[in-house]
């Protein structure tokens, strides 16, 4: 049991390492995700001009940028394997769970990396401060965990379909809605300077959603991965 | 001692029956050649045996030392070469092989990789990107990938596809060696390759 768990973690890290290596070489996802985020951010910033937006609108804008950036870049993780016919090769060498965890970790790291660039830029361009930065960081962390988990499992599903581009956003949106709504609310509370205890119910929802979606993903992934 | 036992395998895609009642039993030092017309289901049968596809009906059991091998562990016992298996184009041959070696739990294993690439006539080209390989070189590299973990069961679909004369000679040598103490399953339409099978199955309805 211990050996199997160790092998699972080790193999997940090997899959993750391979995807990072491939991403740095091809920059499929990084380019798509960062270009989309920066373009949207710049467009919003120019539209708003010097006006100071309401905190509710700011929170929604931040999560809209993050959600659509995730939709743009995070689906590549499985689509690339299917398009280049390496998915079968991967199916032959390791367990489905190791593949899922490796790719999930990649999407989590990619979304966090995007946020490191986008969130400070967003606050500078929107001329606003972080409010309660502890609460904001917790909401961003948990919201992104949920968003990248949804993106990873939906990416696995749509990689088996033919109309991939459209299907990804269509499927991911309803599943991500609880995360987006809760994250927008939590971000608003943080920007208003509320304490962590005030935003605790939002954090609870985000944690619960993350646990549920990760569990469902782990339980269903083998079926999706071997569905052909 | 490893055994494979296939009982009444059949496969349907939607409502189209590809083959039915395929049965065979193989153990170490035995080999099987699968023949059939284009579209008869040779590749489908190989994919089922390798675990990449599930049969519509029938059962496939892998046994090691009289104990059934768990479905999740089968990939450790199988090496597969086929036109539908690709390696990562944007990694070098060495990076590909190190990745597959590590994920199979063999560590970096560079000496084994170099030994196999030399055997397959790819010595000195290990650091080239796979996207810069010719189709024949990719076929040779697929054999290195399949043999890295010294699998007790080797499945080969169209073994000499894209290979030149020298490559064919190397591959035939490898298949002969596999037959000495392991299980070999070959899917082919080349009459010359039928000699690799002690048992023959002709698929198709």
Tell me what you see in this structure.
The complex is a heterodimer of chains A (about 230) and B (about 200). Chain A is an all-alpha fold and about 230 residues long. Chain A has one domain. Chain A is about 85% helix and about 0% strand. Chain A has nine helices and no strands. Chain A has helices spanning about 1-25, 30-50, 55-75, 75-85, 85-95, 95-125, 135-160, 165-190, 200-225. In chain A, helix 2 (about 30-50) runs antiparallel to helix 3 and helix 7 packs parallel to helix 9. The longest helix of chain A has 30 residues, at about 95-125. Chain A starts with a helix and ends with a helix. With about 200 residues, chain B is α/β, with parallel strands linked by helices. Chain B folds into two domains: about 1-75 and about 155-160 and about 185-205, Rossmann fold (3-Layer(aba) Sandwich), CATH 3.40.50; about 80-150, no CATH class. Chain B is about 30% helix and about 30% strand. Chain B has helices at about 40-50, 95-105, 110-120, 135-145, 165-180, and strands spanning about 1-15, 15-25, 30-35, 55-65, 65-70, 80, 155, 185, 200. The radius of gyration of chain B is 17 Å and the shape is globular. At the A-B interface, helix 1 and helix 5 of A face helix 2 of B.
């Amino acid at each position: 049991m211990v050996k199997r768990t160790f092998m699972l973690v080790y193999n997940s890290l090997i899959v993750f390492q391979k995807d990072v290596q491939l991403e740095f070489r091809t920059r499929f996802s990084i380019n798509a995700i960062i270009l989309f985020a920066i373009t949207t951010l710049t467009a919003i910033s120019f539209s708003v001009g010097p006006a100071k937006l309401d905190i509710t609108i700011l929170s929604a804008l931040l999560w809209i940028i993050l959600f659509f950036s995730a939709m743009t870049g995070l689906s590549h993780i499985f689509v690339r394997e299917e398009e280049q016919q390496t998915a079968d090769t991967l199916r032959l060498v390791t367990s489905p769970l190791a593949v899922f965890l490796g790719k999930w970790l990649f999407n989590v790291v990619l979304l966090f990396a995007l946020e490191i660039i986008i969130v400070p830029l967003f606050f500078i361009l929107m001329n606003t401060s972080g409010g309660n930065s502890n609460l904001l960081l917790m909401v961003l962390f948990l919201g992104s965990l949920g968003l990248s988990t949804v993106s990873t499992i939906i990416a696995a599903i749509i990689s088996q379909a033919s109309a991939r581009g459209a299907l990804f956003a269509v499927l991911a949106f309803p599943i991500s809605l609880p995360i987006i709504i809760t994250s927008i609310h939590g971000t608003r509370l943080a920007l208003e300077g509320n304490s962590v205890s005030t935003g605790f119910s939002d954090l609870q929802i985000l944690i619960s959603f993350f646990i549920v979606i990760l569990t469902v993903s782990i339980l269903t992934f083998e079926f999706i991965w071997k569905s052909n | 001692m490893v055994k494979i036992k296939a009982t009444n395998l059949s496969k349907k895609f939607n409502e189209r029956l590809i083959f039915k009642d395929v049965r065979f039993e193989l153990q170490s030092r035995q080999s099987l050649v699968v023949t059939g017309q284009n579209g008869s289901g040779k590749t489908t049968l190989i994919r089922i045996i390798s675990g990449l596809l599930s049969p519509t009906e029938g059962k496939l059991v892998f046994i090691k030392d009289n104990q059934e091998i768990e479905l999740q562990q089968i990939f450790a016992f199988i090496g597969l070469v086929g036109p539908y298996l690709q390696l990562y184009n944007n990694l070098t041959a060495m990076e590909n092989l190190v990745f597959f070696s590590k994920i199979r739990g063999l560590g970096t294993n560079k000496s084994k990789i170099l030994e196999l690439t030399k055997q397959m006539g790819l010595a000195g080209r290990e650091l080239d990107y796979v996207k810069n390989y010719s189709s024949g070189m990719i076929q040779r590299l697929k054999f290195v990938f399949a043999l890295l973990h010294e699998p007790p069961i080797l499945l080969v679909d169209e073994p000499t596809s894209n290979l030149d004369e020298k490559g064919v000679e190397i591959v035939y040598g490898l298949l002969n060696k596999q037959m000495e103490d392991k299980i070999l399953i070959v899917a082919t339409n080349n009459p010359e390759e039928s000699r690799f099978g002690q048992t023959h199955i002709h698929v198709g309805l």
